[in-house]
């Protein structure tokens, strides 16, 4: 009994170990396939080496990887496991094939329903949720078993206690490990991102002001030249082109470079009400051109030290992206909500635009990542760098075709 437990535990530990050792650094979509595959292997091994109780019953831990994949991955990912489980079970043969089939079908239908809610939970919440589901699954299994068993005698209760403790216990341990891995990956990404931002913003700060002056001067002289009557038509198009390119360069500077350098005269201790009012006024005409309605609410009394220009630029970049995301949909609504919660300033910006896939979300904030023809791909970089400087956190929730929500939490 004890050896089987250890063996089964090892089977379940195997995918976790292999994952952190070999695959942790792969791209997101790759990972999913690998995780499902490793879970499938673990499940098969569990089926192959079940617990044989003295009283003649067998049970195994196959549903632990199954539940975990269903919770984290939803229908799409649990389906291969479902098929494999039933094929394997069929191959093993013996009694209870139908029961096993029905049981797994019910779980496959029910558990992924909870997938979205589950993913929104915090680490601890997910551990508890998975444990409760492991418990319920076992309860359900034993409940169906009790029908076959007839009288609920002592043997049945021994089985019950054994099954519950192993199933729930192993689930807790595996979930704690998984959550720890997720936490580590997130922390590492955060450190890398913050390193990258530091490098970029230092570089940016050092060139920004040097570049702005020559740009302004050149653009001024070119505008004079354009007015000249002695230049030919062809020469005039050259001048036009040069001016356009200069405009683009200026856009880059204003999207990112301009405010990347913190300036002591801009530092304020305030509740962002002025900044949000100011940025709202700036963005309103831009919104109405694109038929976007701005719904603005402000409810914050908490104060914080921050660079006024940077926060303004950051908000404008976020609003602009929201509006640009709704451009093609022929308008929509941009919800801006600034509030407070437990000593945190909460900025919530929601649009009803084109949305992003998970892959696209993961690329947000990387320098020069843009899907727009005229985009600079520096707006979000500036946003991340600014929020990073005030020790804030950005959460992105987006669905393709539905819209995007940016949730920024700034501790005070
Ligand atoms: P740019 O706006 O110049 O393209 P950003 O850094 O501001 O650069 O944004 C990078 C990319 O992130 C955009 O090109 C777009 O694909 C995506 N993005 C940002 N915000 C949103 C949003 N609210 N909805 C949909 N996509 C967005
Ligand atoms: Mg932008």
Question: Which descriptors would you attach to this protein?
Answer:
412 residues, alpha+beta, Heat Shock Protein 90, 3 domains, five-stranded mixed sheet, 12 helices, 9 strands, 66% helix, elongated, binds adenosine-5'-diphosphate, binds magnesium ion
Notes on the protein architecture:
The protein has 12 helices and 9 strands. By secondary structure, the protein is an alpha+beta fold. The protein folds into 3 domains: 190 residues, Arp2/3 complex 21 kDa subunit ARPC3, CATH 1.10.1760.20; 61 residues, no CATH class; 148 residues, Heat Shock Protein 90. The strands form 3 sheets. The chain has a 5-stranded mixed β-sheet with strand order 4-6-7-9-8, covered by helices on one side. A two-stranded antiparallel sheet has the order 1-2. It has a two-stranded antiparallel sheet with strand order 3-5. The longest helix has 74 residues. Magnesium ion binds next to α10.
Layout of helices and strands:
Blueprint: H1 2-23, H2 28-48, E1 51-52, E2 58-59, H3 63-92, H4 97-110, H5 115-120, H6 123-149, H7 154-227, H8 233-255, E3 267-270, H9 273-289, E4 292-299, E5 304-307, H10 308-326, E6 332-341, E7 344-351, H11 358-363, H12 379-389, E8 393-399, E9 403-411
Parallel strand pairs: 4-6
Antiparallel strand pairs: 1-2, 3-5, 6-7, 7-9, 8-9
Helix pairs in contact: 1-2, 1-7, 2-3, 3-4, 3-6, 6-7, 7-8, 7-12, 9-10, 10-12
This protein binds adenosine-5'-diphosphate and magnesium ion (MG).
Adenosine-5'-diphosphate is lined by residues 317, 321-322, 325, 351, 353-356, 364, 369-372, 375-381, 404.
């Amino acid at each position: 009994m004890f050896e089987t437990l250890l063996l089964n535990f090892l089977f379940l530990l195997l995918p976790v170990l292999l994952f952190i050792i070999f695959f942790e650094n792969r791209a997101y979509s790759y990972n999913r396939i690998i995780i499902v595959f490793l879970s499938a292997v673990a499940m098969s091994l569990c089926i192959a080496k079940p617990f044989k109780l003295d009283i003649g019953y067998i049970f195994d831990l196959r549903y632990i990887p199954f539940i975990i994949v269903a919770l984290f991955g939803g229908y799409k990912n649990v389906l291969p496991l479902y098929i494999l489980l039933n094929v394997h079970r069929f191959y093993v043969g013996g009694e209870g094939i139908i029961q096993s089939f029905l049981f797994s079908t019910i779980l496959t239908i029910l558990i992924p329903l909870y997938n979205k809610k589950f993913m929104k939970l915090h680490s601890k919440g997910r551990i508890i949720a998975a444990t409760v589901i492991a418990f319920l699954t076992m309860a359900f299994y034993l409940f169906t078993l009790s029908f076959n068993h007839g009288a609920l005698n002592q043997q049945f209760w021994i089985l019950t206690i054994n099954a519950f403790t192993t199933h729930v216990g192993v689930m807790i341990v595996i979930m704690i490990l998984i959550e720890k891995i997720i936490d580590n990956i997130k922390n590492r990404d955060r450190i890398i991102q913050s390193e990258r931002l530091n490098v970029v913003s230092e570089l940016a700060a050092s060139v920004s002001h040097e570049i702005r002056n020559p740009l302004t001067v050149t653009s001024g002289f070119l505008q004079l030249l354009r007015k000249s009557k002695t230049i030919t038509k062809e020469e005039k198009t050259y001048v036009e082109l040069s001016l356009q390119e200069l405009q683009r360069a200026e856009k880059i500077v204003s999207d990112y470079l301009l405010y990347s350098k913190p300036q002591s005269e801009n530092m304020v201790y305030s509740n962002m009400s002025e900044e949000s009012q100011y940025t709202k006024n700036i963005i309103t005409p831009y919104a109405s051109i694109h038929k976007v309605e701005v719904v603005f609410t402000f409810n914050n009394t908490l104060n914080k030290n921050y660079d006024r220009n940077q926060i303004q630029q950051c908000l404008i970049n976020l609003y602009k992206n929201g509006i640009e995301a709704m451009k093609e949909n022929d308008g929509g609504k941009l919800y801006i909500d600034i509030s407070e919660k437990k000593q945190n300033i909460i900025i919530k910006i929601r649009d009803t635009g084109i949305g992003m896939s998970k892959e696209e979300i993961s690329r947000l904030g990387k320098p020069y990542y843009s899907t727009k023809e005229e985009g600079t791909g520096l707006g979000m970089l500036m946003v991340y760098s600014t929020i990073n400087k005030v020790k804030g956190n950005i959460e992105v929730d987006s669905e393709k075709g539905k819209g995007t929500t940016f949730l920024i939490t700034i501790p005070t």
